[in-house]
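User: Structure please.
Assistant: Input sequence and predicted structure:
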Amino acid sequence: MNNVIVVASGKGGTGKSTVCICLSVALLKQGKKVLLIDCDCGMRGLDIMLDMEQDILFDASDAVCGNCSFNEAIYKSKNNNNLYLMAAPFDAENELSPSVFKQLVESVKNDFDFIIIDSPAGIGSGFVTAATPADRALIVTNAEPTSVRGGVKIKQKLDAMGKNDIRLIINRFDRRVFCKLGFYRDLDDVVDATGTQLIALVPFDIRISVIMQRGAAGLNWSTSSPAFDCLAGRIQGQRIPLSFKG
C-alpha cells in the first residue's frame, strides 16, 4: 500500500495543517498507526496543535545530523493513541534536502500504516523536499479564486515531479457563503478549475480552529469529523460516495 502522503497547498491559510491532523485522527479511529511529519521548517505548528510543544527535544534535522537517532526524533502523542510526530526544525536554514528527507522517510515508513507529511505552503524548496518521498498527494484548497490558483500551481509542480496519485480536498466549505459570493457557478467549476479529482469536501466549522489552538486535536467532536472519516476510508480504497449537506 502506498502509505506516504504529502498534504500541500498553494497558499497559506487553507487549513492544510488542520487537515493533516484531522485525517490522522480519522485514520487512528480506523485502527491505523500514523506518523505526522512537520516539514514546514521555521514555521512548525503541529506540535502546538497536538499539545506537544513542551515534549519536543529533537527534530528532523537533529536526526539526520546525528544529534539523535531517528526514533528519538519521533514523539508519541499523549492525547491520541497510535499517533506520532516528527517536528520540523525551528530554523529555516536547517531545511533538509529532498534526497536526505527521502532517506529519512524510507528508514521509518515500515513502522507505520501511514506517514502524513505537512508541506509548507507554496511551491518553494520546502515543498519539493516534502513531496519527494510521497507516494500520494492531497491538495488542500478553499472555494475561492486565489486558493484555487494556488492549487493549480501545486498540481503542475507535482506533475513535473512525476507524482501521479493526486487528489483535491476542498476545505472550509460553507454552501451559503459560496452561493452568495458567486465566484463559481457550482462545485464542479471549482474542481474543473484545479484539474484535480475531488476526494473530500470538508464543511466549515469554526470550532476546529479553537480546538487546534488549544492543543486538543482528537479530543473534541466537530461537525467536520464525518468528512474526515470518509476521507480516511477513501484513502484506504473504500468506495464511499462524495456528498455534503449544508
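Strands lie at 4-8, 34-38, 75-76, 83-86, 114-118, 136-141, 166-173, 198-203.
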